[in-house]
């Protein structure tokens, strides 16, 4: 198989899942859609909790010490959040979602339909692109180690897309573009640069990504809106902070 096959399969499962969700979703009452969204929020919390355990990864602890990993994650979220809010990352994502809807669904729907499309695009893009399987699987695919992780992610994303689209509609299908761009870029990076991130840096990145998923879950559960999009730069800051701590240590 060629590098990038995992991403193409993932994009296909998101599109198929979203289509099925849209076909089924309009037949479901609002209460049922809300229950589906709540279930997705709970499962996202479960995935985040399992991933957050990487903060105690032996490679990370050995590299920076036992107390530094949590501080690295905290610093990454704070610095990344400040940078992202100043750059307006989440607002840009929402504008892009609105632009996509205007191109894909010309002239259809009211303001509420537009909001659902944008919300579905942003929430599903974050869910599909922030997790550790996105990063590790894409790099592994690009390094020629196989796309098994992305195949697993594709199956999970396909089922999630069905549930998301039942609540949010075609915005979920549009998130396949985000999957293609993000995972395709990471796969290309793996092809061009090789194994660039040591295990400790990947663990810090995974723990930071897990907390971003918690933010996505809190939004799905309608507890509070957390601007997770503005915190996305934390995924770049985490490995940089890890390297800084290693150098200073």
Write the layout of secondary structure elements.
Blueprint: H1 5-25, H2 30-52, H3 58-64, H4 68-87, H5 89-104, H6 111-130, H7 132-142, H8 148-168, H9 171-193, H10 199-220, H11 234-248
Helix pairs in contact: 1-8, 1-9, 2-8, 2-10, 3-10, 4-10, 4-11, 5-6, 6-8, 6-9, 6-10, 7-8, 7-9, 10-11
Class by SSE composition: mainly alpha
Roughly what is the average pLDDT, rounded to an integer?
A: 84
**How many individual β-strands?**
0
Oligomer: single chain
Order of helices and strands: HHHHHHHHHHH
Based on CA atoms alone, the radius of gyration comes out at 18 Å
End-to-end distance: 42 Å
Runs with pLDDT <50, length 5+?
none
Folded structure, characterized:
The chain is an all-alpha fold. It has one domain (5-248). The chain contains eleven helices and no strands. The chain has helices at 5-25, 30-52, 58-64, 68-87, 89-104, 111-130, 132-142, 148-168, 171-193, 199-220, 234-248. It is globular and about 60 Å long. The N and C termini lie far apart (42 Å). The mean pLDDT is 84.
Fill in the keyword field for this structure.
single chain; 249 residues; mainly alpha
What is shown here, in short?
The chain is built from 11 helices and no strands. It is mainly α and 249 residues long.
């Amino acid at each position: 198989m060629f590098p990038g096959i995992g991403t193409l399969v993932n994009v296909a499962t998101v599109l198929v899942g979203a289509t099925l969700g849209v076909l089924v979703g309009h037949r479901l009452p609002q209460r049922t859609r809300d229950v589906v969204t709540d279930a997705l929020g709970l499962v996202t919390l479960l995935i985040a909790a399992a991933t957050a355990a990487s903060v105690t990864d032996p490679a990370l602890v050995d590299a920076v010490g036992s107390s530094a990993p949590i501080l690295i994650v905290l610093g990454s979220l704070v610095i990344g959040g400040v940078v992202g809010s100043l750059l307006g990352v989440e607002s840009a994502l929402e504008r892009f979602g609105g632009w996509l809807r205007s191109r894909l669904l010309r002239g259809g729907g009211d303001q509420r339909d537009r909001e659902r499309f944008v919300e579905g695009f942003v929430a599903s893009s974050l869910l599909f692109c922030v997790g550790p399987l996105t990063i590790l699987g894409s790099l592994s695919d690009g390094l020629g180690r196989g796309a098994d992780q992305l195949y697993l992610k594709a199956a999970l994303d396909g089922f999630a897309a069905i549930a998301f689209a039942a609540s949010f509609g075609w915005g979920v299908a549009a998130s396949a573009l985000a999957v293609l761009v993000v995972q395709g870029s990471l796969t290309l990076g793996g092809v061009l640069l090789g194994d660039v991130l040591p295990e400790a840096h990947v663990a810090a990145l995974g723990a930071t990504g897990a907390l971003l998923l918690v933010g996505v879950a809190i939004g799905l559960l309608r507890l509070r809106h957390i601007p997770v999009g503005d915190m996305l730069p934390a995924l770049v800051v985490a490995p940089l902070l890890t390297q800084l701590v290693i150098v200073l240590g």
